[in-house]
Structure formats: structure tokens, C-alpha cells
Design goal:
Residues 27-199 form the DNA primase/polymerase bifunctional N-terminal domain. It holds the Pfam family Prim-Pol. By secondary structure, the protein is of the alpha+beta class. It has four domains: 5-203, no CATH class; 249-358; 366-607, P-loop containing nucleotide triphosphate hydrolases (Rossmann fold, 3-Layer(aba) Sandwich); 613-692, Arc Repressor Mutant, subunit A (Orthogonal Bundle). 35% of the residues lie in helices and 16% in strands. It has 24 helices and 26 strands. The longest helix has 18 residues, at 505-522. It starts with a helix and ends with a strand.
């Protein structure tokens, strides 16, 4: 971005006077160093205030992250995607990804009293600090997150201060408070400094801090470094020392359950998380004494400590559920451990509906709202439509995610992937040429290309063919998987890697089921390219030629095709030349709208956002919606009224609290034309149309 910190600082100090684009500029700048996460947009409505009983309670919902599983962005930096960021506020995911540990002080006077009571020097280092937009003098003090290998998580001293580390977030400077509408301002414009020792000890749970109102703990015994087998003999202490994290790390539960134990959830989300953790612990046969201690002292027990009677009912309900269906419990235990080949799992049993709902397994995306983990992805299209180029782009974005996401829309959830290509059509020389062209506009570090992009082949080439289910291909892939641990497997194209009758539903379904079993055993997620036939009628909802079983088997199917420019009989442009990317099937989530794409340097971009179009690199949220509306109309709006109506419909779906008037939508269109985001075209008859 062409901004300095001094310029951004001045914008932050008048954030309440800025339009949405101005605040997005602040967030985009901060996201260069901090891991920013989307928070809910807007402010409480009168109906919400009435429902919650007060403005303060209604406003709390607007402070929370909108993404499930947002805690991951405490450990890895989240790519900033301008289009899906709230224009009113954003959150800083605290921890290693942002490199910050934040001290959140609600009452400065009481804070100094607590430090004095605990014989702690009543000063703080002159570090970067933010005055919140809330009522009273409330501050966020930013400190460097240590790189000593220890975990510094969330802790709270009610009514006084909170520490936000791994699993925590704070609203970032430049945001508007959802209750007061006041901005979060920079209070101390200094460098971020090291945290004081007492704060690190408190955040790592190696010391406790007390107030005058609460008696000092009579027991400070810590957990010894024991394994899970010893937990029933542990004398549970009243305080949690640093070794407790070792204890949690060695529980026989999924990482998801462990993360939930360490996460403090906002009101309205605590019950669901608590129930999930409780089932996970009981299913894993963790001693009840240890479970109660976890709920007494860790963030997951926030509600149980406030409502002990409710927690007793929850424990009994969970015990009864488990006792009613031991087969379901055993199967869920298998899910927890990730085992698929145990003798237990080889025996068929059953799960009832409640078992399914309470399973500790969670639905995850590899690429958000585009490709779910452990579900095959099928990309179809006519020959020459760019399917292999699209697949290479997906692979590159998986190992080196672009800031705006795949196709400027779909967020790549993690860069920790290794992709194995098994393909038959592109030679070593041809592939090298493709990657050289792509590097002109999207350069990937050499170590990432070396370690994370892998190409299967022999005799110095990157091509192969044969039955993927045959041992001649399976065994080498299994061996290489053992060496590299790749987690994505790409077949390009499908027809080169089977010897079945492609028109036989029975043969193709059995082949695909067997192939997916192979992938499942390796714990890899497959992507396949499948061609259309010679005739356009051969494509359908399943995608591609041959047996319909191919499309039925695929959980996620996208179709890519090239659409030529068209004009009407009077010479008016109906639509520009483009690539059309259409989701034909989404088994486990809502399908996406069609995307109109253009290609530059062998990478696809949404129409209007190619690197060749400089203005759109700085599009704000309103301009992005104008682009979405024009794309929804196929790239051409025959009248301004048609485009305005489509813009308003998109607001109704995406931002129901910010629906513009027709006049405002018209002004947004005019600004989009002025800034070069879209074009206004005057036809021979004087009529005006809009296109890219």
C-alpha cells in the first residue's frame, strides 16, 4: 500500500469521520503485520436491543468473529481479504501470528490497586496502546508475543483486566465500538515492547494474581509431568500452573477439543462449545475428577463456574447419552483418534442421529466455501478451456496463499499443504514454461516450490499414465507419500488413469470408490480434471462426459469454459469475452454464484480485478458489490435500473443492515465508472449499458 504509518495514524485518530473505504484502508495497512479477522458489521438494531434487554448486551454480538474456527488465525497469519472485511471493525487475532500479547484493562484505578495488592510495581512499559471506544477509560496495551516456545493464552481477572493471547482477539485501532459508535484510538504511539515478567507468568499460568476480595489460594500444587495414564492419581490443585498445559496437550482427545478447552467463548456460544468438549472428554474416558478440574479452571468452564447447577445437569445428560449407545461411543472414539483400520472400525455398527450431531469431528474447508477437506473436487470443461491452468493456480495458492484468496474470493485456510500432481498431458518443458510465465505476476519463494509442489513421473519427466488403482502406480505413490507426506493429490485428466468403460455407471462408480479409499487411507484429498465430450449436451450437473456416476460420486464440481464476445443485431455489446466458472455441485454447503474470469500471465482473476486494471486494486466494499452485481448479470447490465436493483438485492443478502436507497446505489455506479472499475457504454441508439 502507498501509505506510511504516520498517514495511517492520522486516519485512525479520525476513524469515526471516515467512510467505509477509509476504515478498510486502515485495516488493510494493519493486516500487513497483524493477523486481522472479520468481525460482525453494523450496529445493534432497536429489535436486537429489545430482544437482548439492553444496548450493551446487544452490542456484544457485534464484537465477535464471524468465522467459525477463527482461533487458527492466532497461530498462522490470516490473509487479508478486503471484500469480506467489515467496514466498521476488525479483530486482531492475538498470539504468534500477530506477534502480540494484549493486556485489556477495563478499570485503570482498580488495575493499579490489584498490582499493588500482589506486590507488583505499579507501572507499565511505554508500549503501543489503544484507547477503546467503550464507556470509561479502557485500554489495550500491546506487547511482543515471546518466541521462547511457551504458550501464552487467555486469562481474565473479572472486572479488572484480561490477557489476550492464543485463542483471543481484541478489536483493532480504527474500528468503531458497536455500543457507543466511538472509534478505537491510538493512545500511545510507540513501538511494541516486551511484556513485563509478571504478565508473562500470569499468561503462561505459572503464577496467580489475587484481589483483596478473594482469599489467596491455599494450595499451589502443580501437576507433575505425567501422561494420561496417571491422571486418575493426580492431586488436583486449586490453581493451574504452567505444567497444566502439558497435561492438556497429552489428553487423548482431538486438537479441536484441546483448543476449545483453552478458548474463552462469548455469551451465546458457550453452551455448544462446552457440550462438545464434555462429550469429547467423557468419550475418551478422561477421569471425571480431571474433567471437573478443567471446567473449574480453564476458559471452557466460564459458564459452568457461573451456573454450577446447569453444569451438573450437563454432566448427567452427557453420561446418559454415552450409556445409551456404547457402539456410538466406540465409533466416536475412533473418530477422535483418527483411526480407520482398527479391528473395531472393521466391524459395522451404527450411530443414531444424536451421535452424529455430537460427533467431535468438524466440517472443515481447505479453501473456504470452495473445497471441503476430505471431499473430492472435480473440475470439468471443454478441451482448451484452461482446466490445467486453473488446477495449477489452485495448487500454487494452497502452498502460497494470495492475500485476497483464490480468485480474490475464496480464502485459503492454511498454507501447510503439499500437493502431488499425477498428470499425463504436460511435458517437463511445457510445465516449466507455464511456471515461468506465472512467476511474472505471482512469484513463489523457491523453497516453497521445492518443498510443496511435487510432480509424479519417471525418467526425468513429469508425465505418467495407467490405472491409479493398480499397484504399479499405487505402490510408488505410497512410498513417496511416506517420504513427503503430501496431503493433496491431483489427477489430470481422469481418463488417463483408469482402464474402465467410461460409459458404464457400475464400472466407474466402483473405480472411483476404490480410488477414494486409497486417498482416505493416505489421508489425502483428491482433485480431478475431467473433460467434456464432443457435444455440449454431454455436460450436465455431474460435469463431464461419460457415465453419470462420475458426477454423482463427486462431492464438489466446478465447470470452466470460455465464452466469446457477443453483440446484438444493432452492434450493442451483449457481453465481453470471458471465462465462465460455474459451480455445478456442492454436497455439503451452499453453492456459489457463477464467476466471470479473465486470464493474465496464466492466472485467472475475476472480471475487473486483473493486475492490468490498476484502479480496482484499491476497491472498497461498495465498489466490490457493484462488481458482484455486474458479474451476477453476466457482465452486462442493459440499464442502470437493472444494475441498481441487483446491487440492492446483494445488499439484502450480504449486508441487510446497510441496504442503500436507489439514489445511493446509483451514486455507487457513477463512482465505479469514474474510477474505472466498470465501463458505461453508449449504444447506437443512445441507450447506456454497463460492462467491465
Amino acid at each position: 500500500m502507498n501509505y506510511s504509518w504516520d498517514e495511517i495514524y492520522l486516519l485512525i485518530q479520525r476513524a469515526d469521520q471516515l467512510d467505509a473505504g477509509g476504515r478498510l484502508t486502515i485495516f488493510e495497512f494493519l493486516a500487513q503485520t497483524l493477523s486481522l479477522i472479520p468481525l460482525r458489521d453494523g450496529f445493534p438494531t432497536p429489535a436486537e436491543i429489545e430482544e437482548c434487554g439492553s444496548l450493551a448486551k446487544a452490542a456484544k454480538k457485534y464484537k465477535g468473529p464471524v468465522e467459525k474456527g477463527w482461533e487458527r488465525w492466532c497461530q498462522e497469519k490470516r490473509p487479508f481479504i478486503r471484500a469480506n472485511c467489515s467496514t466498521d471493525r476488525a479483530g486482531v487475532a492475538c498470539g504468534p501470528a500477530s506477534g502480540v500479547l494484549v493486556l485489556d484493562v477495563d478499570d485503570m484505578g482498580r488495575f493499579w490497586e490489584v498490582l499493588k495488592f500482589n506486590s507488583i510495581e505499579q507501572t507499565l512499559p511505554p508500549t503501543f496502546a489503544v484507547k477503546t471506544g467503550g464507556r470509561g477509560d479502557r485500554y489495550h496495551y500491546y506487547f511482543k508475543y515471546p518466541t521462547d516456545g511457551k504458550k501464552y493464552s487467555n486469562r481474565s481477572k473479572a472486572g479488572c483486566f484480561d490477557v489476550r493471547g492464543v485463542g483471543g482477539q481484541v478489536i483493532c485501532p480504527g474500528s468503531l465500538h458497536p455500543e457507543t459508535t466511538k472509534p478505537y484510538l491510538v493512545a500511545t504511539n510507540e513501538n511494541i515492547l516486551d511484556a513485563p515478567e509478571w504478565l508473562l507468568e500470569y499468561a503462561s499460568r505459572s503464577r496467580e494474581i489475587f484481589t483483596e476480595e478473594e482469599p489467596e489460594s491455599t494450595s499451589r500444587k502443580s501437576f507433575s509431568n505425567t501422561t494420561r495414564a496417571d491422571t486418575s492419581d493426580i492431586e488436583l490443585s486449586e490453581t493451574i500452573s504452567g505444567e497444566m498445559d502439558f497435561f492438556i496437550a497429552n489428553l487423548p482427545v482431538s486438537d479441536d477439543v484441546k483448543q476449545k478447552i483453552m478458548t474463552q467463548y462469548v455469551h451465546g456460544t458457550r453452551s455448544e462449545a462446552s457440550w462438545s468438549v464434555l462429550l469429547g472428554l467423557l468419550n475418551a474416558k478422561v477421569d471425571e475428577k480431571a474433567i471437573r478440574h478443567i471446567y473449574d479452571h480453564y476458559p471452557i468452564g466460564d459458564k459452568s463456574r457461573q451456573k454450577p447447577e446447569w453444569f451438573e445437569r450437563e454432566i448427567e445428560r452427557a453420561k446418559n447419552l454415552i450409556a445409551q449407545n456404547q457402539i456410538g461411543v466406540n465409533m466416536q472414539s475412533g473418530f477422535l483418534s483418527g483411526a480407520n483400520n482398527s479391528s473395531l472400525n472393521e466391524e459395522y455398527g451404527f450411530l443414531n442421529g444424536l451421535d452424529v450431531l455430537n460427533s467431535p469431528q468438524n466440517f472443515e474447508f481447505i479453501i473456504d466455501n470452495f473445497w471441503p477437506k476430505n471431499e473430492p473436487l472435480l473440475i470439468t470443461g471443454p478441451g482448451g478451456s484452461g482446466k490445467s491452468v486453473m488446477t495449477l493456480q489452485i495448487a500454487m495458492d494452497l502452498v502460497f496463499p494470495p492475500q485476497q484468496g483464490l480468485l480474490d474470493r475464496f480464502q485459503v485456510m492454511s498454507s501447510e499443504h503439499k500437493v502431488m500432481f499425477v498428470q499425463s498431458e504436460n511435458s517437463l518443458v511445457g510445465l516449466k514454461r507455464r511456471m515461468e510465465i506465472i512467476a511474472k505476476t505471482y512469484a513463489i519463494p523457491p523453497d516453497v516450490i521445492r518443498d510443496k509442489l511435487l510432480f509424479f513421473g519417471k525418467k526425468g519427466d513429469v508425465r505418467s499414465s495407467g490405472d491409479i488403482n493398480d499397484d504399479k502406480l499405487k505402490h510408488p505413490l505410497e512410498r513417496i507419500h511416506g517420504q513427503t507426506n503430501f496431503d493433496i493429490l491431483i489427477l489430470d485428466p481422469l481418463i488417463s488413469f483408469h482402464d474402465q468403460d467410461e460409459n458404464s455407471n457400475d464400472a466407474m462408480r466402483r473405480f472411483l470408490d476404490k480410488f477414494f479409499d486409497f486417498c482416505d487411507n493416505l489421508k489425502v484429498t483428491p482433485l480431478m480434471i475431467h473433460h467434456h465430450g464432443k457435444f455440449r449436451a454431454e455436460k450436465g450437473i455431474g460435469g463431464g462426459r461419460g457415465a453419470s456416476a462420475i458426477g454423482d460420486w463427486s462431492a464438489n464440481t466446478w465447470e470452466l469454459e470460455f465464452v466469446e464476445e457477443r453483440k446484438d443485431k444493432d452492434g450493442n455489446l451483449k457481453h465481453v469475452a470471458h471465462y465462465l466458472f460455474t459451480q455445478k455441485k456442492a454436497r455439503s454447503y451452499e453453492s456459489n454464484l457463477k464467476m466471470m474470469l479473465q486470464m493474465k500471465d496464466l492466472r485467472f482473476y475475476p472480471m475487473g480485478s486483473s493486475p492490468a486494471v490498476g484502479k480496482t486494486a484499491r476497491m472498497d466494499g461498495k465498489m466490490a458489490i457493484v462488481v458482484d452485481a455486474l458479474q451476477a448479470l453476466g457482465g452486462t447490465a442493459s440499464t442502470q435500473k437493472q444494475l441498481k436493483d441487483t446491487i440492492i438485492e446483494i445488499y439484502k443478502k450480504k449486508k441487510p443492515n446497510d441496504i442503500p436507497s436507489e439514489g445511493t446505489a446509483g451514486n455507487d455506479i457513477k463512482r465505479a465508472v469514474k474510477e474505472g472499475v466498470i465501463k458505461e457504454v453508449t449504444g447506437p441508439s443512445g441507450s447506456k449499458t454497463y460492462t467491465f
